[in-house]
Specification:
- This protein is α+β, with helices and mostly antiparallel strands.
- The protein folds into two domains: 134 residues, Alpha-Beta Complex (Lambda Exonuclease, Chain A), CATH 3.90.320.10; 86 residues, no CATH class.
- It is built from ten helices and five strands, in the order αααααααβββαββαα.
- It has a five-stranded mixed β-sheet, sandwiched between helices.
- A hairpin with a 4-residue loop joins β4 and β5.
- α1 crosses α2, α3 crosses α5 and α8 crosses α9.
- The longest helix is centred in the first third of the chain and has 19 residues.
- The chain binds iron/sulfur cluster.
Length: 273
């Protein structure tokens, strides 16, 4: 393993897709990936926990019989919020209680804007059946020395003849299928699973929890190749190469904006010399 290859995670590949320079700065600044806007961090955490607790909704209609959708959603989010404070103790240690409560209320009201949200989770769907029958291993961590890659997949479902990676996404859901970056991430997890379980991963799932969309995704050859190509770019950056910015880099909300501008100016001065 070459110097700089050791710490590459699947999340680095995802970050590269957002903006390659984020990989560069995170490798040097040791910033927490969740840092930045506190409210959106809390919202992401709550949504993610919601996805880890779908069993509270799917298959438990009898428990909530006759209860209004509003009350069901609020009760579930309240329940999850209590656990979140313990599970994410470090991340939430400096957060004011009123911010947490405000985000919780906003999330419930945003979810309730989609009158079908609850029904979409209650409807028959293959992923939730698989989770109900086989369970899943939460944040299953894998390491491959051969690939110089590691990662924790949100949910790993193991059936008699399949090992299936599932990712929870708190952002926007595409109209069809899954985003290209999500395909790449699933392919990267699949290669880690194959190394650990000596199997071939045929498909994965993406849970777009904000809109309760659960999408199956075949693991294609081109997605595997894309993940390996991205891994090579990330290795170069970790060894010190300063990359170009991403085509749709979210600079306005970026915590590295100042360092990025300074670095760009220094490079252009050197180039002129
Ligand atoms: S400021 Fe823009 S180009 Fe620089 S790291 Fe952030 S997102 Fe990327």
């Amino acid at each position: 393993m070459e110097n700089g290859d050791r710490k590459i995670k699947v999340s680095d590949l995802t970050q590269y897709g957002i903006c390659p320079r984020l990989v560069y700065f995170h490798a040097r600044e040791h910033s927490e990936p969740g840092s930045g806007n506190e409210r959106s961090m809390v919202e992401r955490i709550l949504l993610k926990e919601l996805a880890f607790n779908l069993y509270m909704i799917y298959g438990s209609e009898a428990e909530y019989e006759g209860t209004e959708q509003k009350e069901v959603v609020e009760r579930i989010i309240d329940d999850i919020a209590d656990d979140v404070k313990h599970v994410y103790k470090r991340e939430l240690s400096t957060l004011a209680a009123d911010v947490f409560d405000a985000v919780k209320l906003d999330l419930a009201s945003n979810i309730l804007k989609d009158s079908e949200w609850l029904n979409k989770i209650r409807a028959e769907n293959e992923l939730l059946v698989l989770q109900k029958v086989h369970g899943y291993d939460r944040e299953h961590t894998m390491v491959s020395e051969k690939l110089s890659l590691s990662g924790s997949v949100d949910k790993l479902i193991v059936t008699d003849d399949e090992v299936i990676p599932c990712m929870i996404k708190t952002g926007k859901c595409p109209e069809y299928s899954v985003w290209r970056s999500d395909r790449m991430q699933l392919a990267a997890y699949s290669m880690l699973i194959e190394a650990e379980f000596e199997t071939t991963v045929r498909r994965g799932f993406v849970e777009y929890i904000r809109t309760a969309e659960f999408r199956a995704c075949p693991i294609r050859r081109k997605d595997r190749a894309f993940a390996l190509q991205t891994l090579k770019h990330v290795k170069r950056i970790k060894r010190g190469a300063f990359p170009d910015k991403g085509a749709n880099a979210p600079c306005d909300n970026c915590i590295f904006l100042d360092q990025c501008e300074t670095r760009k100016t220094l490079l252009s001065m050197l180039f002129r010399k």
